[in-house]
Amino acid sequence: MPPALPDDDIGILHADLDAFYASVEQRDEPALRGRPVVVGGGVVLAASYEAKALGIRTTMPGRQARRLCPDLIVRPPRFAAYSEASAAVFAIFHDITPVVEALSIDEAFLDVSGLRRLTGRPLTIAGTLRSRVQDEVGLPISVGIARTKYLAKVASALSKPHGLLVVPAAEERRFLHALPVERLWGVGRVTSGALHRAGWSTVADLAHADPSAVEAVVGPAAARHLLDLAHGRDTRRVDPHVSRRSIGAQQALGRATRSLPDVDAALLELVDRVARRLRRARRTARTVTLRLRFGDFRRSTSATTLSVPTHETSELLTAARRLLLTRAADIAREGLTLVGIALSGLDDHGEQLTLPFEDRDPGRLDAAVDAVHERFGSAALRRAVHVRE
């Protein structure tokens, strides 16, 4: 059980998907679960944890990997599948907090420090994040929680696989000083060798070293960087101001839902959500993508491109509903366990003007609804179809 969070300034999460490519292969081909799997033939691009337990590592030559494990299962990379899975995970990140900084296709920092009164403490939020990624996307993810980005990233790495680790502010020094110097950002094979030759094998050794001695070994700039980390100094904030290529959201439906009205109600809620985020970012979208997961866990992705980019809920909903109706027969036959929507082809056009200019302009309604949500919260105003007796 992770320790409690006694400090209000602990609110940075580092979320990192476990053995991402290999996990997607195991998710999509259940027979591979629990077995050693690698992605990539000539060179290992990713290895499942079962393969890692046998000494197989990323960038290892394929021949060497097969020598370590004659029963190794090798799959060619499917980058479209990985991109789709990443988009689904990041949709969950952005549904949890708007302050998300993507590091790569499979990891990100999230700042949840301002969400305590809305959704709970960081530990609760991290637990929700892990559950949603597992339930909605079918992938394991590890999360570290700390006061700084560096500590959160180290915590997530130490919690793998599929773990959760908290570094309370009061325990930072003890946590840091027990780490080997290789855990410091920027310490590769060459720097590691130089530090060990100088007699510094742990972060504690480095933290207690004479700064001038560290400078003599690694140079002034590297010395300042490493000593800041060794003393827990990391002032970098989570930076969400990186233009995303898509905005999305998805919802797990539980047991296979066969009622098209139920699916439509879920889709309506998702379109409301992503359209509101689109307008908040002052952007428009040209492409609407619908993602479905049927009762037999088969997946479907379909998309349509609009003639004019828009951020109006009604237009986006119409496009999404057209896509949904093309799969109505499959939904009735197989049932549906998940529905997702993604908007792409994003442009920074700000306010959207439509013709003709009528008093019953749907854009005015969107603006009024957005204003209510911004002031009173997302639960303050709901569509009648989402109200349960």
UniProtKB/TrEMBL annotation:
Residues that bind Mg(2+): D16, D106
One cellular-component annotation, GO: cytosol
SUPFAM superfamilies to which the protein is assigned, alphabetical: DNA/RNA polymerases (SSF56672), Lesion bypass DNA polymerase (Y-family), little finger domain (SSF100879)
Segments forming a coiled coil: none
InterPro entries assigned: DNA/RNA_pol_sf, DNA_pol_Y-fam_lit_finger_sf, DNA_pol_Y-fam_little_finger, DNA_polymerase-Y, DNApol_IV, Rev_trsase/Diguanyl_cyclase, UmuC
Site (Substrate discrimination): Y21
Note describing how the cofactor binds: Binds 2 magnesium ions per subunit.
Annotated catalytic residues: E107
Family matches, as Pfam families: IMS, IMS_C
Enzyme Commission number(s) from the entry: 2.7.7.7
Keywords assigned by UniProt, alphabetized: Cytoplasm, DNA damage, DNA repair, DNA replication, DNA-binding, DNA-directed DNA polymerase, Magnesium, Metal-binding, Mutator protein, Nucleotidyltransferase, Transferase
Entries under PROSITE patterns matching the protein: UMUC
Catalysed transformations (reactions): DNA(n) + a 2'-deoxyribonucleoside 5'-triphosphate = DNA(n+1) + diphosphate
Required co-factors: Mg(2+)
Family that this chain belongs to: Belongs to the DNA polymerase type-Y family.
Role this protein plays: Poorly processive, error-prone DNA polymerase involved in untargeted mutagenesis. Copies undamaged DNA at stalled replication forks, which arise in vivo from mismatched or misaligned primer ends. These misaligned primers can be extended by PolIV. Exhibits no 3'-5' exonuclease (proofreading) activity. May be involved in translesional synthesis, in conjunction with the beta clamp from PolIII.
Matches recorded under HAMAP family: DNApol_IV (MF_01113)
Record protein name field: DNA polymerase IV
